[in-house]
């Protein structure tokens, strides 16, 4: 008989999901390039976070949305196995965020029901006002997400891109007034904010208890010129 | 040879380990353990202070919970003889434990008032017990009678001489893996669960109590407690209780590291379990290392 009491132990999965806006407006001012660069730059930081949190198995997924949601990385994938392929924005594509949240909710519904996972971390990046050409409103999508056990307990962060980002909707997505809502106005800010959000979300989500301390890391101060807001 | 002529003698082992996430986030150990034994009688309690930011004094709350539980159960453990009456005794003791805990918490608040200029502490003024939120799991044994009480999560398991484990307490329907019942609720006794076990009827070689940090990261999420019970009886029989006492902190270290949460366990074992083991002579006067309340009371 093994001297280890209680049998084998396993790290709990921490599902980390990026929900990224690739609507037509992301083609303006190099936003989609900046978003690709930001995701490329955040991956090494997430690897560091994974190493620093041996109790959590960090698994990444990426959902892009414009006229419709599309899984870029659908299978939960360990961060060190991610090979980022650059996203393209959809010319004249809408911002079907409600539909994307429904797809996200469907994915969360398949998570383990036995509580053997940390609450997911979800980071939403968008530069526009949610549209509803698919028939699903943002409010409907958000309500579906919040009706899901994992969606309701998830650590939800959001980043606006440029002046036209609908900060009101992004705030409703976050839910918690104590959680900072940031708007990036240039590529450097987008990188800094995504790195900050990713590290903060992984730290909070991987606590053994829900809400164990909230976001304590202050967001980075704005840097550079607000070129996306002046471009509109 | 009757049981009355040779009353059972019990040995108590206990340990706590801080979780790796508590270390990472510079949080204190929020579990607490306290035991007492004179051989024929024993009392033990474990408590798991909530990790949520709203429970920012939960390390003190859990410390006060185990002190309250051991104090009150020591008061009544000598009266545990009739299984029919023991149910009422443990329910009454539980109410006294809650009252004692609330009183102790209020004294602590008087000595360490909330800072109304601090946003987090100011919010606690209207719900002053909330920062001290904790679970409680306790047991008392006197001769042949064992009682268990619980509010909140954690596991209580009894194990027979054959290594067969059973959970004596009913399920708490409010436990969903994300939330737990708590001493800081307005009516904590609504979540009280109790059990009375007559060890002349139920074969009990040992009982163990543990906080949820021990079981939540097990690969075998459904059966880890059965395996733990079987192993403990096997270890006791083959290696002895002194060996188990030395191993216990190491057994808790791995779940505390991999699971990230504080992990605590108390084992109440029949002292004759390890009688046949090839071990060093057992020292009945040796006490377990337990957190001292003095360490927690002087912190705000």
Automatic annotation (TrEMBL), chain A:
It holds the Pfam family VWA_2. InterPro entries: VWF_A (IPR002035), vWFA_dom_sf (IPR036465). Residues 15-204 form the VWFA domain. Gene3D superfamilies: von Willebrand factor, type A domain (3.40.50.410). It comes from the Bacteria. This is VWA domain-containing protein. It comes from Nocardioides antri.
């Amino acid at each position: 008989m093994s001297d280890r009491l209680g049998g084998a132990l396993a790290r709990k999965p921490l599902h980390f999901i990026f929900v990224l806006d690739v609507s037509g407006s992301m083609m303006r001012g190099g936003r989609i390039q900046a978003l690709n660069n930001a995701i490329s730059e955040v991956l090494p930081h997430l690897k560091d976070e994974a190493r620093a949190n041996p109790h959590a198995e960090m698994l990444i997924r990426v959902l892009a949305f414009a006229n419709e949601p599309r899984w870029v990385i659908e299978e939960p994938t360990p961060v060190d196995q991610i090979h980022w392929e650059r996203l393209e924005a959809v010319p004249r594509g809408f911002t079907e965020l409600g539909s994307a949240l429904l797809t996200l909710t469907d994915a969360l519904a398949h998570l383990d029901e036995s509580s053997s996972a940390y609450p997911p971390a979800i980071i939403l990046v968008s530069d526009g006002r949610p549209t509803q050409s698919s028939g699903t409103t943002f409010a409907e999508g958000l309500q579906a997400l919040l009706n899901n056990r994992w969606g309701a307990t998830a650590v939800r962060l959001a980043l606006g891109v440029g002046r036209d980002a609908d900060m009101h909707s992004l705030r409703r997505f976050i839910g918690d007034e104590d959680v900072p809502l940031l708007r990036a106005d240039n590529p450097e800010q987008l990188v800094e904010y995504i790195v900050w959000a990713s590290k903060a979300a992984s730290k909070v989500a991987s606590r053994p208890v829900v809400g164990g301390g909230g976001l304590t890391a202050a967001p980075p101060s704005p840097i550079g010129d607000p070129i996306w807001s002046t471009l509109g | 040879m009757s049981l009355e002529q040779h009353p059972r003698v019990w040995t108590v082992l206990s340990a706590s380990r801080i979780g790796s996430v508590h270390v990472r986030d510079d949080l204190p150990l929020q579990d607490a353990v306290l035991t007492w034994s004179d051989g024929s009688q024993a009392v033990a309690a474990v408590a798991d202070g909530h990790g949520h930011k709203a429970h920012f004094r939960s390390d003190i709350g859990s410390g006060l919970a185990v002190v309250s539980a051991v104090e009150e159960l020591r008061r009544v453990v000598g009266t545990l003889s009739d299984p029919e009456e023991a149910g009422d005794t443990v329910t009454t003791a539980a109410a006294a434990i809650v009252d004692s805990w609330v009183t102790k918490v209020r004294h602590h608040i008087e000595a360490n008032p909330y800072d109304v200029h601090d946003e987090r502490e100011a919010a606690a003024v209207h719900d002053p017990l909330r920062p001290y939120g904790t679970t409680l799991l306790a047991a008392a044994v006197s001769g042949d009678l064992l009682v268990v009480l619980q509010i909140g999560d954690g596991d209580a398991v009894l194990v027979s001489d054959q290594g067969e484990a059973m959970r004596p307490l009913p399920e708490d329907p409010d436990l969903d893996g994300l939330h737990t019942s708590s001493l800081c609720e307005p009516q904590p006794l609504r979540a009280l669960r109790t059990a009375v076990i007559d060890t002349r009827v139920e074969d009990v070689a040992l009982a163990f109590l543990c906080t949820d940090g021990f079981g939540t990261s097990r690969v075998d999420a459904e059966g880890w407690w059965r395996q733990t019970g079987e192993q403990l009886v096997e270890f006791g029989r083959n290696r002895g209780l002194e060996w188990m006492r030395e191993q216990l902190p190491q057994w808790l270290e791995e779940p505390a590291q991999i699971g990230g949460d504080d992990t605590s366990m108390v084992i109440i074992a029949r002292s004759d379990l390890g009688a046949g083991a090839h071990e060093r002579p057992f020292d009945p006067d040796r006490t377990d290392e337990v957190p001292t309340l003095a360490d927690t009371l002087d912190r705000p």
